Amino acid sequence: MDYRIDNNGGKATVVFTGDITFSENVSFRQLLKDISDQSVEVCNFDLSSVDMVDSAGLGMFLIAREQSETAGWKLTVSGAQGHVASMLKLTKLSDLLDA
User: Fold this and answer.
1) Cβ atoms of residues 98 and 88 within 8 Å
2) Are 47 and 77 in contact (CB under 8 A)?
3) Per-residue model confidence as pLDDT tens digits over 28-85
4) Cα gap 50→98, rounded to integer Å
5) Domains and CATH numbers, the chain
6) What angle do CA 29, 30, 36 make, to 5 degrees?
């Protein structure tokens, strides 16, 4: 998993590439720290270049949602397709994450 944060006046977009799996746990926590260090009101996770997410990756999205609620910013998800979109729908995370 690689990511890039584009922050435009408090509206951030995190563009992910690669798979989001258990092995990316440390990188994902760093991502959340990076978002928290910026003045963000809304953050969108762009998953259009993600081919696979496992159960740990889905759990990381829940951690991000909890952190967003605690820190006072809104988390949305966009661009999920194929396997990733199916996993979000199957687990009902698409409802929780405004996907």
Assistant:
1) no
2) yes
3) 999 999 998 888 999 999 999 999 999 999 999 999 999 999 989 999 999 999 999 9
4) 17
5) 2-96 (3.30.750.24)
6) 90
